[in-house]
Write a structure and sequence with these properties.
heterotrimer; A alpha+beta (169); B alpha+beta (264); C alpha+beta (794); A: 169 residues; alpha+beta; Ubiquitin-like (UB roll); 5 strands; C: 5-stranded mixed β-sheet; globular
């Protein structure tokens, strides 16, 4: 059986896989990182989004073997070891941007890439358009959009903490 | 998904060898069309040939009055390319409008053009700009390359290597997305190049096609108004739960108008 | 030092306790669970809408690599069919037709996706590999894919012995009185509409794991359910004959339900049964494609209605004829949706004196249809609120004014409708006024003119709605055909050091119960939210429960907790009286403190709890040790949230695309416990409402193939399809539950679709349009505009 070697959340793994094994299957079933979810089979819902070498990808649409030699980050790898949340995670909590939580890991990973790709900042419309690849059935996206808008300021160093964003409102 | 052998060659020659040796081998680039099809078991390749390790297929460069884009250039790279933005902004904008961020981070122009999905974006740019498709064997003019729904001039053991786009005087693109899939329901790419005006329509028909009446009208008068009253016949256009052939025919005119406005 | 803890009780937007695990990837959904030695089930489903099965050959599959077992309907013939939980009676008093719903097809398949066989293997893909080798000899039969086809003379009989594919022919109201009112009317308005069929598409696909302990004989089912006890009851008693004591059902974190995870599905029975037979755990997880063809769908009504008005626009009578699609089999609660969750809502917020409604429920060769996100009430609201706009147009009375003239006045409660329900409270003028002001209704024409200058058609629409939820008084629903009680159960367990565990029969799959319920306890018992843990979703831990649907968790489940807290407080008072040497009648309790009235003698809840568990100085003759109380709460009535939704849309006339540019919701959901969560619930519901109005449609072709069978063709609302949704609340308290709460889970999906379509029709007012069917897709809108232009040109 072919082998894949990759780093996941900073830890190196070498795993035997089938040719057909998807990256998401490797993560969920072999490495037991079940925070990455599968919500569709047409590459549309985005519940499976992880980062490969810093960019968001749908892990259900990548063969595990295609990820050989890459650095993968999943939702489990976002917070600091002491438990401090990533600003995007923190904003999702602050703005009630999640309900059932199923789309949330993919949504957070996609949102981080979206914000990183736009250092000048995103408008509400751009955030909405930027979420094309992520479906949520619970929230109506309203609070997700608000959370991302708040998190981008923190991520780009324009606000040191969310509380200041709140205070400014 | 059926299981398959996986190969990751590092040269076009090796890739072609693998494809030639196995009639059931399939190349994979971004994989965003192939893998969903495999997941639904619509396809049973015995091996999959990953093209991502082949340096020759990568890169975007300007060569004189042409922009040459390697087959493995990702949508994101084309959208962000300074060369493409300067020379063919409509192409950069198109690339930035394909699918979602994750698709753009993985999907490649070569994969899209070789697949020739009637609802894909790039074929309209390739056809309207009169681009040349460079393969492992030959150079193919866009007009000869696209041969209808999911069909191209490519042979099974022939690999798409690059696409050469002539830098146009003007070019613009507009599309209406399918509300569900977000693929193209009807789109128009208009271009004024050295050879004249070319208009390619995607999404609406079973394959990308040139709209000659609009080309003639725009040759005489390059303005949105010139195409505003040119009606696309509905005969032969796609019809489904998202839009009738008549609706798509109407959209062709609307999108052509918008594409000309977009081109400026 | 005396540190005053922040108040975290009723009315505070406490951040959710559950978020940390979901945001860290630590949620545990059914498919995340791995049992030792687990096997994987794949269900082979019918590709045909209607076919006889002549033979199934599984020999090759049995021999396929990794396969553990292959079963077909013949193997499961001894077990029961999937039961239906509600029996409706026909006009003549006879019971509805209730055909067997086999777990695996028995001799015939009746919809695309009907389970035919199950393959169990050591991996999902190998199970699929093997399933492809199963040879099924189908004799394809003509299909009845629509109600029209199913009711046509000579239609294919979907079930043997059920004439005309009719499940029931039901009615409500006094026809003679209704006819007389119509005969006397100054104006009669008629209206026809199809309420579009929806696919629930909770983001987590359904999954189930069966496990069996050969030493104890205990079965465990992990399942994506909104109501594990209901599944235990239905599957244990009716399908597999397993006593409750030997059947544990666990619904762990569940990724959205919206109704679709209420029902007992075949896969749950299959994995439970197979796990016992094989002595190995069996897991099944749906692909999204399977969800489309196996999760119960929603809506799908065809309705003709007439409204009788007097010369002043007062409604005299309403008459409704509805056909409701049941699909191929009766899903768990399907029969009650178009009857008691629909027809009883047809008074809406209006003083309609007489209502007559007939409902024909029809079997078709499609996926079963059941309650979905609002269930019956969105259909009733859409009908009424479109009818009001049509009536306004035909009578020339302003649409807002027509509504005002017919509102049930705020001082008329309790209000008895002619269709069985008695509303306890509401204030429809106020929610309307507030919404009109917030949405700047008065300034609309200027915005329309401005949009016209940009080439856009702008419209505004209003919907004043009401719904019945807080499901439900057991005796009432029992008399209407429910085969279950609909009370809820709550346990308040005060631990020796004063922290609290709440056990609830409600189930949270996005609603934030772990936070809201903790706030209820914090508010009353004064325990910090962080020290209140809410446990749900496991029949081995929770005494009993009926689950979460019909916006019932707080109104019914919360009230059960309230009653359990009553018992805690009553017992605590006895202990406190003993400790403080006072009479029980003199002990007061307020937020964690027991006090002898008029003195400064106090005991904290923590002290009382410790005493209860360490009963050294304790009235042991009178009361038992411990501080742990359970209450069953059976509601006295439904609750009646209501309010006003206003949508503003812009249409691009070139493409027909409709954009909702502004949305205002002012809802009366009763007392609000956590405003942040309530707003989120409403926003999500409105997104579904906009989705139904503009995007979503499950379409079958005439052969019964689902054309919108994946997210490539079924339009799921995305972020850029939706606007910001402004939410406000205007509260009148529910009068019959102790919390004064009504429910907020469904109001968004119920109130919003007609607001959107009314806005679309308004935007198209120059095109001679009186109605636009849902979904108002670009293609459909362009067709209307194009026809309007052609008419204008002729």
């Amino acid at each position: 059986m072919p082998q894949v070697t990759l780093s996941v959340n900073g830890k190196s793994h070498t795993v035997e896989v089938e040719g057909r094994t998807l990256l998401v299957e490797l993560l969920r079933e072999r490495l037991r990182l079940t925070g990455t979810h599968v919500g569709c089979d047409t590459s549309q819902c985005g519940a499976c989004v992880v980062h490969i070498d810093g960019e968001s990808v749908k892990s259900c649409t990548i063969l595990a073997l295609q990820a050989d030699g890459t650095q993968v980050t999943t939702i489990e790898g976002l917070a600091k070891p002491d438990g401090t949340l990533h600003p995007m995670q923190e904003a999702f909590r602050e703005y009630h941007a999640l309900q059932c939580g199923f789309c949330t890991p993919g949504m957070v990973m996609a949102a981080i890439d979206l914000v990183q790709k736009h250092p000048a900042g995103l408008s509400e419309k751009e955030i909405r358009e930027g979420l094309e690849g992520n479906l949520c059935r619970c929230t109506g996206y309203h609070n997700i959009v608000k959370a991302i808008a708040a998190a981008q300021d923190v991520m780009h160093g324009r606000r040191s903490e969310l509380a200041r964003a709140e205070a400014a409102e | 998904m059926y299981d398959f052998a996986y190969h990751k060659p590092t040269s076009v020659a090796d890739a072609v060898k693998l494809l030639a040796a196995d009639p059931d081998a399939r190349p994979i680039s971004g994989g965003h069309t192939l893998l969903p099809a495999l997941k639904h078991r619509l396809n049973k390749p015995s091996s999959v040939v990953d093209l991502s390790g082949i340096a020759e297929l990568k890169g975007i460069r300007r060569e004189g009055d042409r922009i040459v884009i390697g087959a493995m250039a990702k949508h994101k790279e084309i959208a962000e390319s300074a060369e493409v933005q300067a020379a063919i902004p409509a192409l950069a904008k198109m690339a930035g409008s394909i699918g979602d961020i994750q698709v753009r981070n993985r999907g490649t122009i070569g994969g899209s053009v070789a697949n020739n999905d009637p609802a894909a974006d790039y074929p309209a740019a390739v056809l309207a700009l009169g681009a040349t498709v460079v393969t492992s064997k030959r150079r193919i003019a866009a007009d000869e390359f696209f041969q209808g729904m999911f069909t191209t001039a490519l042979q099974p053991d022939e690999l798409l290597v690059a696409i050469e786009f002539p830098v146009p005087q003007r070019a613009g693109y507009a599309k209406m997305r399918n509300p569900a899939s977000r693929y193209v329901m009807a789109g128009a790419f208009v271009a004024k190049i050295a050879d004249g005006v070319r208009v390619a329509i995607n999404g609406a028909g079973p394959g990308v096609f040139r709209q000659k009446a609009m080309e003639a009208a725009l040759s005489a008068n390059w303005s949105p108004d010139a195409v505003a009253n040119i009606k696309q016949p509905a005969d032969g256009l796609n019809s489904d739960i998202h839009g009738s052939a008549e609706y798509r025919a109407h959209l062709v005119t609307v999108m052509a108008k918008r594409a000309v406005a977009d081109a400026g | 030092m005396n540190v005053v803890a922040p108040f975290e009780g009723i009315g505070v937007s406490v951040k959710r306790k559950e978020d940390l695990r979901f945001l860290s990837g630590r949620g545990q959904y059914t498919d995340d669970i791995v049992r030792p030695g687990q096997t994987y089930a794949y269900i082979l489903r019918s590709p045909h809408a209607h076919a006889r099965i002549n033979r199934i050959d599984t020999a090759a599959a049995q021999a396929s690599p990794g396969v553990v077992a292959v079963y077909t309907g013949a193997d499961l013939a001894a077990i029961g069919g999937l039961p239906c939980g509600w029996q409706i009676h026909n006009k003549d008093g006879s019971p509805m037709a209730e055909p067997k719903h086999p777990v695996l097809a028995e001799g015939k398949v009746r919809h695309v996706g009907d389970p035919v066989a199950v393959v169990i293997a050591d991996s999902r893909e190998r199970a699929k590999d093997a399933a492809e080798t199963i040879l099924v000899d189908y004799e394809v039969l003509p299909a009845a894919a629509t109600m029209q086809a199913a009711l046509a003379p000579g239609a294919p009989a979907i079930h043997d012995g059920i004439a005309g594919n009719l499940c029931y022919d039901w009615h409500i109201g006094d026809k003679a009185v209704n006819d007389a009112a119509f005969a006397a009317a100054a104006k009669v308005v008629t209206f026809e509409t199809t309420n579009n069929r929806l696919v629930p598409n909770a983001m987590e696909p359904r999954a189930a794991i069966g496990d069996y302990d050969t030493t104890t004989g205990e079965h465990t089912l992990f399942t994506t359910s909104q109501n594990p006890h209901v599944i235990r009851l239905l599957m244990g008693a009716f399908v597999l004959q397993i006593p409750e004591s030997k059947l544990r059902v666990v619904a762990p974190d569940v990724g959205g339900g919206f109704g679709s995870k209420i029902y007992h599905y075949a896969e749950e029975a299959i994995v439970t049964w197979a796990a016992a037979r094989l002595g190995r755990p069996v897991k099944w997880t749906a692909d999204r494609s399977e969800s489309f063809m196996s999760d119960a769908h929603g809506r799908d009504h065809v309705t003709k209605a007439s409204l009788a008005l007097d010369a002043n626009g007062k409604i005299l009578a309403l008459r409704v004829h509805t056909q409701a699609n049941m699909g191929a089999y009766l899903s768990t609660f399907a029969p009650c949706v178009p009857t008691y969750l629909y027809a009883t809502l047809l008074a809406g917020v209006y003083t309609t004196p007489t209502i007559y409604c007939e409902v024909k429920a029809v079997f078709t060769n499609t996926v079963p249809v059941d309650a979905y996100r609002g269930a019956g009430r969105p259909e009733a609201t859409f009908l009424l609120e479109r009818l009001m706009d049509v009536a306004a147009k035909e009578t020339g009375i302003d649409r807002v004014e027509l509504r005002r003239r017919n509102f049930i006045p705020a001082d008329a409660f309790p209000y008895q409708t002619p269709v069985a329900l008695q509303y306890d409270s509401g204030d429809y003028q106020s929610t309307l006024d507030e919404a009109l002001a917030t949405a700047d209704w008065a300034g609309f024409e200027a915005r329309r003119a401005e949009a016209a200058r940009r080439g856009k058609l702008r419209g505004i629409g209003v919907s004043t709605y009401l719904e019945a939820c807080g499901i439900a008084p057991s005796a009432v629903v029992g008399s209407l055909g429910a085969r279950a009680g609909l009370y809820e159960v709550g346990t308040i367990r005060v631990h020796p050091t004063g922290s609290v565990t709440v056990l609830t029969g409600a189930h949270s799959h996005g609603q934030g119960h772990e936070t809201t319920f903790a706030q209820l306890v914090s508010d009353r018992l004064g325990v910090p939210v962080a020290q209140v843990d809410v446990v749900h979703g496991d029949t081995a831990k929770i005494p009993f429960g009926m689950g979460t649907y019909g916006s019932r968790s707080l109104a019914v489940g919360g009230s059960a907790m309230f009653k359990a807290m009553d018992k805690i407080i009553a017992k605590g008072k006895k202990i406190a009286a003993h400790l403080m040497e006072a009479s029980v009648d003199d002990v007061e309790f307020d937020r964690g403190t027991f006090r002898v009235a008029g003195t400064d003698k106090t005991k904290s809840l923590g002290e009382i709890a410790l005493t209860a568990y360490v009963p050294h100085n304790y009235p042991i003759e009178e009361i038992e040790p411990g501080l742990d109380e359970t209450a069953f709460y059976d509601p006295k009535n439904f609750t009646y949230p209501g309010g006003c939704h206003i949508a503003e849309v812009e249409i691009d006339p070139d493409t027909g695309r409709v954009a909702v540019v502004q949305f205002t919701a002012v809802d009366d959901v009763g007392r609000v416990i956590n405003p942040m969560i309530v707003e989120g619930q409403v926003q999500g519901g409105v997104a579904q409402g906009i989705g139904q109005a503009l995007l979503e449609h499950a379409v079958y072709d005439t052969n019964g193939q689902l054309l919108s069978g994946s997210m490539m063709d079924y339009t799921m609302p995305r972020a850029d399809d939706l606007p910001n949704v402004g939410v406000a609340t205007h509260t009148t308290l529910c009068t019959h539950n102790p919390l004064g709460v009504k429910g907020c889970g469904e109001v968004g999906a119920i109130g919003s679709p007609p607001a959107v379509i009314n806005a679309v029709v308004d935007a198209l007012r120059d095109y001679g349009v009186s109605h636009v069917e849902m979904p108002a897709t670009p293609d459909r809108i362009w067709g209307i505009i194009n026809a309007g232009r052609k008419m204008a040109a002729e």
